[in-house]
């Protein structure tokens, strides 16, 4: 086994062999999840706390289910409703929780880098469930697993990531992961939704969907993050759909067997045509959700093994 | 006061742009005589052998933030004064962005009195340009100037109303008052934590384009041209802003510009893994910008180097990067950090010293900042080459938020003199 990380803060810190190890283990958890018993004791006796400082239904549910299937004691904390309102700082919240001896801390926070900060202050394993516009590593890993299972490999593929790149941690984690595994990554979207100097990351940038999708193996759509915008990034939803929404005509420029992905939740008729999303021959969107549970089980399992292998530091 | 004789020193004269072996006779708090060569001390006078180390005019630092009133837990006049003395800073022009802002002659008088009781170095308070630094109504510029305001500035609050700003500039001009502004387009820079570019994209942090600084400066310079005011841009940080500055100077406007020590010695990538001690305002820029700023200091286009000393307590910095407060303490690290440029052979010592002492003193109309007969004996004696590793907890500032913690530095202050009196001495 080759997985050395103590925390899962971002894809940036993972080596290609660690990614492969994690995906291989996740494959076995897919089988477990499809079996009748759906249960393992890999995390038995361990405590997992999900701290979500930002609303989430899907990711939180996926982490919760992953922990429970592995036998962990899982607690969910909706942080917006609790101590933040009382003025407690992030670090104090972390230290408070740390005193309860959790083993796995799953954190989502609206600000980039907040999860890194928290990881410095606790002595359990921290999993980043999304921080600001920075990273969302388990999403990139579940996408990678989905691609690997659909395409039979995770290298030498041409992948187009389309839409609101600037406000997307999913895009950042994916482009880092796909780059590490030696794929060609294209970013497609209006220039107002493209981060500055992004072409320096070894990606090709397009502002035309037909050019950007030409002959790609994978089309990864992003949610248009309306709630994140100060306004004025695009003229209107309908113009966005016309120019950047994925429909059959635009998809016809990709390879005939290209798969369509979306991290969810979808805005049908804004970034993706409902017919494409539901096309079982092209869309792997439901598989992504399934892979999500398996990948999170694998990530927590591997981190817990490293945790058990190390003598526990005592923070004073 | 009895005479003092400082000999066997390498004298840095930023005016003549020379560095020569010599000695100084100090009398009544002033430089009485300047001697060149290895002169032996005369009989019956207190003498200090400088051991061949460098003796230079004390640093005149424009834009020091002190937490009085309002945030004394971050820095007081006493702690800032001790830090300044240890850093070779003999005059601090302090910022008015206190709580409340220094916008009335009464508060200014109080602060000036407190400062000069508690700090061993010269403290010259600046006043706000508009009431509450709100950008709506100008302060009593005349009364404030009479009460000792050395300059007028709303600091990092950019006055967005061009009518308000142009009237304040016009009124200030009639009194010959210096206006200091932070050039920045306030709308483009809103909410930004870092400079835009590869690093910001990698870290997913809200960013501002360097162009916002140029836009802010161009706006300010247009109003200076309109009003004829005396204007100083407190911190420039981008290459994009420099052509506008050059044009303004060439066309004869009464304009000067400064840069903070951090923008001369650090770049955007130093933020690394969201290290908030590297969060400053304006944000650290690209390496190309940093080198352009160093060149601009070397060529004299940028006149003044400042510490932009901004104390922040641990609570203000131990937060996610976007939420963390901006600013870094720098009174004690200004000199060794600036010497990095000398050791890297990017600038010579006398030119560097012009930006640290002579130019800021001239801009504020002070007699200090130079080695001249009858100039105040505000001096710093330092060892150019002495190496050390900075430990932030050894700083005399009440706040320890320095980006140089744990870094190797070269150049240590041996002694600091204010009006001929030694206010700091290293072992």
Automatic annotation (TrEMBL), chain A:
Species name: Halocynthiibacter halioticoli
Reactions accelerated catalytically: carbamoyl phosphate + L-aspartate = N-carbamoyl-L-aspartate + phosphate + H(+)
Amino acids binding L-aspartate: 86, 169, 223
Gene: pyrB
GO CC terms: cytosol
Name the UniProt record assigns to this protein: Aspartate carbamoyltransferase
InterPro entries reported in the protein's UniProt record: Asp/Orn_carbamoyltranf_P-bd, Asp/Orn_carbamoylTrfase, Asp/Orn_carbamoylTrfase_sf, Asp_carbamoyltransf, Asp_carbamoyltransf_Asp/Orn-bd
A GO BP entry: 'de novo' UMP biosynthetic process
Keywords, sorted A to Z: Pyrimidine biosynthesis, Transferase
NCBIfam families according to UniProt: asp_carb_tr, PRK00856.1
Record-level Gene Ontology MF annotations: amino acid binding; aspartate carbamoyltransferase activity
Pathway the protein takes part in: Pyrimidine metabolism; UMP biosynthesis via de novo pathway; (S)-dihydroorotate from bicarbonate: step 2/3
Top-level lineage group: Bacteria
Record text on subunit structure and interactions: Heterododecamer (2C3:3R2) of six catalytic PyrB chains organized as two trimers (C3), and six regulatory PyrI chains organized as three dimers (R2).
Role played: Reversibly catalyzes the transfer of the carbamoyl group from carbamoyl phosphate (CP) to the N(epsilon) atom of ornithine (ORN) to produce L-citrulline.
Uppermost EC category: transferase
Annotated ranges, domain Aspartate/ornithine carbamoyltransferase Asp/Orn-binding: 157-302
Domain Aspartate/ornithine carbamoyltransferase carbamoyl-P binding: 6-148
Entry binding sites for carbamoyl phosphate: 58-59, 108, 136, 139, 264-265
Similarity remark: Belongs to the aspartate/ornithine carbamoyltransferase superfamily. ATCase family.
SUPFAM superfamilies attached to this UniProt entry: Aspartate/ornithine carbamoyltransferase
E.C. number: 2.1.3.2
Gene3D superfamilies listed in its UniProt record: Aspartate/ornithine carbamoyltransferase
Automatic annotation (TrEMBL), chain B:
Domain of life: Bacteria
Entries under InterPro entries matching the protein: Amidohydro-rel, DHOase, DHOase/Allantoinase_Hydrolase, DHOase_cat, Metal-dep_hydrolase_composite, Metal_Hydrolase
EC number of this enzyme: 3.5.2.3
Limits of the Dihydroorotase catalytic domain: 52-238
Name of the protein described by the UniProt record: Dihydroorotase
Pfam families in the cross-refs: Amidohydro_1, DHOase
Keyword flag Hydrolase: yes
GO cellular component, one term: cytoplasm
Molecular function terms, GO-annotated: allantoinase activity; dihydroorotase activity; metal ion binding
Lineage: Bacteria, Pseudomonadati, Pseudomonadota, Alphaproteobacteria, Rhodobacterales
Domain Amidohydrolase-related per the UniProt entry, residue ranges: 270-423
């Amino acid at each position: 086994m080759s997985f050395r990380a103590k925390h899962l803060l971002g894809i940036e810190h993972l080596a290609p062999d660690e990614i492969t190890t994690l995906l291989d283990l996740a494959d076995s958890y897919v089988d477990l999840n499809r079996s009748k018993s759906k249960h393992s004791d890999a995390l038995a006796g361990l405590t997992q706390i999900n701290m979500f400082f930002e609303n989430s239904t899907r990711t939180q549910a996926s982490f919760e289910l992953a922990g429970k299937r592995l036998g962990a004691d899982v607690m969910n904390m909706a942080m917006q409703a609790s101590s933040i309102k009382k003025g407690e700082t992030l670090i104090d919240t972390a230290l408070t929780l740390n005193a309860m001896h959790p083993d796995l801390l799953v954190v989502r926070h609206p600000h980039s880098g907040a999860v890194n900060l928290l990881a410095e202050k606790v002595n359990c394993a921290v999993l980043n469930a999304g921080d600001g516009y920075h990273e969302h590593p388990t999403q990139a890993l579940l996408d990678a697993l989905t691609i690997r299972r659909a395409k039979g490999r995770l290298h030498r593929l041409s992948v187009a990531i389309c839409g609101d790149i600037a406000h997307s941690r999913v895009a950042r984690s994916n482009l880092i992961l796909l780059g590490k595994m030696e794929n060609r990554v294209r970013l497609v979207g209006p220039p107002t939704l493209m981060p500055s100097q992004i072409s320096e990351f070894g990606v090709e940038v397009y502002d035309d969907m037909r050019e950007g999708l030409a002959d790609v193996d994978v089309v990864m759509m992003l949610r248009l993050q309306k709630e994140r915008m100060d306004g004025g990034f695009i003229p209107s939803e309908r113009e966005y759909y016309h120019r950047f929404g994925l429909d059959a005509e635009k998809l016809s420029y990709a390879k005939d067997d290209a798969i369509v992905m979306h991290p969810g939740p979808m805005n049908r008729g804004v970034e993706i045509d409902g017919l494409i999303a539901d096309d079982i021959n092209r869309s792997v969107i439901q598989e992504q959700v399934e892979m999500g549970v398996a990948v999170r089980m694998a990530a927590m399992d591997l981190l817990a093994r490293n945790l058990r292998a190390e003598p526990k530091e005592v923070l004073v | 006061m009895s005479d003092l004789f400082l000999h066997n020193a390498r004298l840095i004269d930023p005016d003549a742009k020379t560095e020569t072996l010599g000695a100084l006779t100090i009398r009544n708090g002033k430089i009485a005589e300047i001697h060149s060569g290895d002169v032996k001390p005369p009989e019956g006078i207190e003498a200090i052998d400088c051991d061949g180390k460098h003796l230079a005019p004390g640093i005149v630092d424009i834009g020091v933030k002190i937490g009085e009133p309002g945030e004394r837990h971050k820095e007081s006049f006493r702690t800032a004064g001790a830090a300044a003395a240890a850093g070779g800073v003999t005059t601090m022009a302090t910022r008015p962005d206190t709580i409340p802002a220094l916008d009335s002659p009464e508060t200014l008088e109080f602060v000036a009195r407190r400062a000069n009781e508690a700090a061993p170095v010269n403290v010259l308070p600046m006043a706000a340009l508009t009431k509450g630094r709100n950008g709506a109504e100008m302060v009593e510029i005349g009364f404030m100037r009479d009460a000792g305001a050395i300059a007028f500035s709303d600091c990092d609050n950019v006055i967005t109303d061009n009518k308000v700003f142009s009237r304040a500039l016009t009124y200030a001009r009639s009194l010959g008052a210096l206006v200091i502004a932070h050039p920045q387009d306030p709308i483009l820079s809103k909410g930004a934590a870092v400079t835009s570019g590869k690093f910001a994209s990698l870290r997913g942090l809200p960013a501002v384009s360097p162009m916002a600084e140029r836009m802010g400066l161009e706006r300010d310079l247009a109003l200076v041209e309109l009003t004829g005011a005396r204007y100083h841009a407190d911190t420039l940080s981008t290459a994009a802003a420099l052509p506008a500055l050059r044009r303004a100077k060439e066309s004869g406007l009464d304009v000067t510009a400064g840069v903070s020590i951090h923008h001369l010695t650090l770049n955007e990538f130093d933020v690394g893994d969201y290290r908030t001690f590297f969060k400053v305002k304006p944000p650290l820029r690209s390496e190309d910008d940093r080198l352009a700023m160093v060149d601009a200091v070397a060529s004299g286009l940028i006149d003044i180097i400042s510490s932009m000393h901004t104390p922040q307590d641990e609570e203000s910095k131990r937060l996610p990067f976007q939420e963390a407060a901006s600013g870094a303490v720098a009174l004690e690290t200004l000199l060794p950090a600036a010497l990095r440029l000398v050791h890297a052979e990017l600038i010579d010592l006398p030119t560097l010293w012009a930006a640290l002492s002579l130019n800021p003193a001239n801009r504020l109309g002070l007699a200090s900042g130079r080695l001249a007969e009858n100039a105040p004996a505000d001096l710093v004696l330092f060892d150019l080459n002495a190496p050390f590793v900075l430990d932030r907890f050894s700083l005399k500032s009440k706040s320890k938020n320095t980006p140089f913690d744990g870094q190797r530095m070269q150049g240590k202050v041996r002694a600091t003199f204010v009006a001929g009196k030694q206010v700091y001495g290293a072992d």
